[in-house]
Amino acid sequence: MMKQRKVANPLALAVLAELMVEPMHPYEIGRRLKGHGADYAIKYTPGSLYMVVKQLTRAGFITTQETVRDTARPERTVYALTEQGTQELVDWLSDLVAEPVTEYPQFGVALSLMSVLPPHEAIRLLSQRLERVTTQGEQIRQSRKNADDDGVLWVFLIDDDYRLALVEAERRFVTELIESFKQPAYTRAWQETLGS
């Protein structure tokens, strides 16, 4: 069972990981997260990044290393990972890797409530989703190929492989679901429920 965290936002975990590499300013952390493609897995804004930095500082996981004053720019605070922060990063990441958790994806919610739609509308919408999911898969494959061509080590691409596996599983599921909905026996009870 995963333990309660002082700061439980996934963005906090990413900030800790970036600061494990070297001390840096929050703007640089954000730039690197975007450069690594972490914005696919972690939703954040510059404001939320600064908020998480404050939370991590209060929790004792990071500390101010220095404040740089440049006449051309505003004051910049550089943060560093503390020993307690390193331990939190390792413990938290270990929990996430080892322990499955129930997540609540929006598509799962939509599927659980889809019976309120007429079958023909569900087929139309699922077909639209299938096109978009197929495009996502192509984009991930291309991104992965580009990274391979650039010599990026496989260990830094595991999240892309995982995203591709999920997209491919969804593509297969949606394709089969559309075919099921086209079978009259499958949709008869559904139509009767809707009174059509």
From TrEMBL:
Domain Transcription regulator PadR N-terminal: 15-89
Pfam families named among the record's database cross-references: PadR (PF03551)
PANTHER family: PADR-FAMILY TRANSCRIPTIONAL REGULATOR, TRANSCRIPTIONAL REGULATOR RV3488
Stated name of the protein: PadR family transcriptional regulator
Protein species of origin: Nonomuraea cypriaca
